[in-house]
Amino acid sequence: MNIIDRRRLLGPPNAVPVKFVAETQEKDQTTQAPKELFMERGLVANSNGSACLESRGLVIQAIVYGPRPVQPNFTPSATQGSELMSRATFNVEFEMSPLVSGFATLDTQKLAVCVRDVFLASLLLDSYPKSTIDVHVQCLSLPQGVPEDEVLAMATNCISVALVDSGLEMRDVPVSVANDGVVLTVLNYQNDEIVGLVVGRSVEGLASRLEGLKEESRGVRREIDTFLMK
Amino acid sequence: MISAPEKVVPGQPIVPILPDSVYEAGEGASMKKLYANNELITCIVSNKLGKVITQEKDGKTIISVVSVGSGSNKITTPKVGDIVIAKVVRITGTRALCDIYSIETATGTGLINSVLAEGVENFRGVVRSQDIRSTNRDSVKLVECFKPGDIIRAQVISLGDGRDYFLTTSRNDLGVIFAKSNGGAGQMMLALDWQTMVCPETGKTEKRKCAKPF
User: Fold this and answer.
1) What is the ipTM score, two decimals?
2) What are the chain B neighbours of A228 within 8 Å (beta carbons)?
3) Domain Exoribonuclease phosphorolytic spans what residues (chain A) (predicted)?
4) By the 8 A CB rule, do A40 and A51 touch?
5) Residues of B in contact with A195 (CB under 8 A)
């Protein structure tokens, strides 16, 4: 229909109004997106090592300080003294970034303890007597619906890359995978030696599931090795 | 001749140890027993991300791994026998307290702390008066050997107790390498002999236990 209105400035005669297509549900995409892993290391200049890992919206960073001289207690007992002398103490602190919302259910203390046990078994702490190695882990982004076991697995992998970046001596690089309540951490080059296993609830058929998780960990290790070798 | 990989990741086997092998593990590598083809084989395994370096010594080939890249601060702690560079912080009648800044290891010099700021906690060393020189060890006057602010080259003799490492400067090539005259207010001094340093601007001499420069 031709509307000629001499009093107004009209657009071209065949113009149609803009119509926006309704946005598809973007929130679900974070859990259904392919499991890609983005890594970066050496970001923090005044630390000994650092790494940042991102996968499907979950972003975790780890910063390593050490070996630093350790402050002995004023009255060290005999055992404490010899422990200080023979190997490094290793500490992990896990915290959520203030920008992340909805993390009230995440037990950061438990995550720190689980992660610490893995690295006590993998690091060669005897090479660094009278010192302390401190790792600060921070979760920068936590999308809704990401289970706690995935956070634990990502945090472990992030600390692994940060420790490799720092040049500290380790037996192997621990690689962690999570699947439906089970978190398995292995040392792939030491014949898939298990250094961490966290089971959230009673799980049936655990032994057979472990083989599948080990296979998945080899894939993750290949990714990490490719990145480190660049 | 077995060919070793050039760049390795932690945990990666470098070379296997065969019965008549000449390979030994050096810095950054260790010997491990790993399963391969259902057999337990001893290998030299890397402990770091870095380049493989081979050195010949006494008929043996020593395999070490040296870090490269952004994180290559050559992290290490002082071990017995290491030569360290330290700064004298405080002296008393019987000992000199120092901050240890860097270590000379077999594969090169490494900084201990990545940040050399004043407030950063450093590894501490102590040079006792009997460890300063090898002659007349009992009649040493510490104030004629070191002053606060001097940079010294010393050797670690013991891990010590508490926080301090025990150091010694009783070799010809150990002692003060850099010092400023007038308690730090003047110019940098040059060593005349093992007991004396001179300020080139004023000509004044000061007593120090100097390291042999060459």
Assistant:
1) 0.80
2) 9, 49
3) 35-169
4) yes
5) none
Q: Indicate whether B87 and B168 sit together in one domain.
A: yes
Residues B60, B82, single domain; the answer is no
Report yes or no on A2 lying in a domain.
no
Q: Which domain holds residue B41?
A: 7-66
Q: What CATH number corresponds to the domain at position A115? A: 3.30.230.70
Whether B48 and chain A come into contact, CB under 8 Å, resolves to yes
Angle of helix A148-166 relative to helix A206-228, nearest 10 degrees? 40
Q: Do B75 and A168 touch (CB under 8 A)?
A: yes
Q: Is the pLDDT of residue B170 over 90?
A: yes
Q: Report the predicted TM-score, pTM, of the whole model to 2 decimal places.
A: 0.82
Q: B74 contacts in A (CB within 8 Å)?
A: 167
Task: Give the count of beta carbons closer than 10 Å to the beta carbon of residue B152.
Answer: 28
Q: How far apart are CA A178 and CA A114, in angstroms?
A: 13
Q: Answer yes or no: is pLDDT of A79 > 90.
A: no
Q: Which of B31, B68, B77 would you mutate first to test chain A, the one with the most A CBs within 10 A?
A: B77
* Residue B113 pLDDT: 55
Contact A116, A50 (CB under 8 A): no
- Same domain? B147 vs B115: yes
Q: What average pLDDT does chain B have?
A: 86
Which is more confidently placed, A84 or B99?
Answer: B99
pLDDT at A33: 54
pLDDT at A83 over 80: no
Count of structural domains, chain A:
1
- The predicted pLDDT at position B90 comes to 94
Residues of A in contact with B75 (CB under 8 A): 48, 66-67, 166-168
B9·A171 Cβ contact <8 A? no
pLDDT surpasses 80 at A109: yes
Contacts of B125 (CB under 8 A, 6+ apart): B78, B84, B86, B97, B98, B99, B100, B154, B156, B164, B165, B166, B167
- Closest approach of chain A CAs to the CA of B86, in angstroms? 15
Distance between alpha carbon B90 and the CA centroid of its chain, in Å? Answer: 21
Q: How many domains does chain B have?
A: 2
